[in-house]
């Protein structure tokens, strides 16, 4: 706790503090919510990642006006880069959004809570295990939730597969329809180049109980990141919503993300 | 003239929760107190018995007292006895009690359960409502009796609606006199924790839990209810708030803390509960709050201040003794 106070004093500017305090969030008497989000922890995390966002990855975010300033929303990006840096950078973009800052939630890979220190840290920043029930409860609490439907298929893919969308799970579409939450598609460009993976060392992954173990650089490279937020997509509940129909709707979202990725790649003048 | 107030049986009456509850109930009810550990000392006006529910003499209590309900709080805690005796007392004893309630037409019946029945896994969503699966026995055999007691009460709840069974699943009950693992931990000067893990926890004060039982008994709305405040704090922060120094234990490999706890025989940090110090089990107490218009009165800050104050008093007394 003392470390937290010290970090806050050193890292969090009064402007950032005021900005986070202005974001409405239902928390208990010690500043936590039922998934472990903590306003003070979030401020420290935001201060660190905002520095990386501004100076290391030099992120350009476009289309932030499309993110609803309040109420439930599903933020659906492509996933890449071995580490969940894309989620963190989208989180920063949403937290400093001039059209209405939000402390977004992120659905985490299921193995993360088992990793010492990492699980609790990500919880404090707004992450929660990627369980449909968590996502539903968060949407019902009018949160903006970042979901990567590709999961580890996207984050763990090899560099040779860059910017190729992997199979999307359909759970997010069921939730969007059931909870009547708009979907904001996001095209992320640049995170593929932060940790290019040449191979997946499966025996090592199995040994460490990890979903993949990439043969890659030891630290993320300072690739420029471009985020494109698309227009919200609404999907009404229909009697004819078979799994096939749901898959068609998921395909619409994938198409929107592909368009946004293409736009980002076209705008990019260089990787670094 | 005989006292016209209805008479109710409270089990586990030697425990702190039961004693608080009995104080609350005394105004409106006559209480009969039972405990299988020892005969509770509750004053002359409260008939009290120290008896095993599996003992033949237990039936006589229900036969001799015209009861208008039972509040079953009696449970042997995991560190208090062997698994065999615990199963006999907690599960088979509860079955006897429920069967006698049917035989002597005693209702309503309230049963104390625990949030432990949900099990602590890294995949738990939050908050867990009453319909979430009970996974505790998958993780450790030491909690089998807790899950079995729940299953038993559940079977009786649906099969014998005339018993009007209400099952309460509270979060950590803490406060003066509570002897469970968590209360022991919060009372310690140095408390163990697993390095790198600080799961979110919920705490309810023993007085609030006693109020919850009184409300559930008076309003009699059978069913299963979680009981927990809408307030959360990580374990390590709770320890610090109570004035405990943290003792980090290695969390990798997972066998390491297990062996340490087993070797040292810690009551407050038992090996079978280690997962509960690693992964959160956050429960949703909303249904109970809405059904019974219940709100806890004691805040987390008040609960922790009480533990801190008691430590300070203890330290002061030790300093005085040293000077003398």
Topology record:
The complex is a heterodimer of chains A (272) and B (324).
Chain A: H1 2-11, H2 14-21, H3 39-56, E1 60-62, E2 73-77, H4 85-95, E3 105-108, H5 118-125, E4 127-129, H6 132-140, E5 144-146, H7 152-155, H8 171-178, E6 183-189, E7 199-200, H9 202-207, E8 214-215, E9 226-229, H10 243-267
Parallel strand pairs in A: 1-9, 2-5, 2-6, 3-4, 3-5
Antiparallel strand pairs in A: 6-9, 7-8
Chain B: E1 7-11, H1 16-25, E2 30-35, E3 48-50, H2 58-64, E4 67-72, H3 83-103, E5 109-112, H4 136-139, H5 144-159, E6 165-170, E7 172-174, H6 181-187, E8 190-194, E9 200-201, E10 203-205, H7 206-219, E11 223-227, E12 233-234, H8 235-241, E13 245-249, H9 255-264, H10 286-292, H11 300-323
Parallel strand pairs in B: 1-2, 1-4, 2-3, 4-5, 5-6, 6-11, 7-10, 8-13
Antiparallel strand pairs in B: 9-12
Q: What does this entry look like structurally?
A:
The complex is a heterodimer of chains A (272) and B (324). Chain A is built from ten helices and nine strands. Chain A is of the alpha/beta class. In chain A, helix 5 (118-125) links the parallel strand 3 (105-108) and strand 4. In chain A, helix 3 crosses helix 4. Chain B starts with 6 loop residues before the first strand and ends with a helix. Chain B is built from eleven helices and 13 strands. Chain B has one domain (7-319): NAD(P)-binding Rossmann-like Domain (Rossmann fold, 3-Layer(aba) Sandwich). With 324 residues, chain B is α/β, with parallel strands linked by helices.
Key structural traits:
heterodimer; A: 272 residues; alpha/beta; seven-stranded mixed beta sheet; two-stranded antiparallel ribbon; 10 helices; 9 strands; 39% helix; globular; B: 324 residues; Rossmann fold; seven-stranded parallel beta sheet; two-stranded parallel ribbon; 11 helices; 13 strands
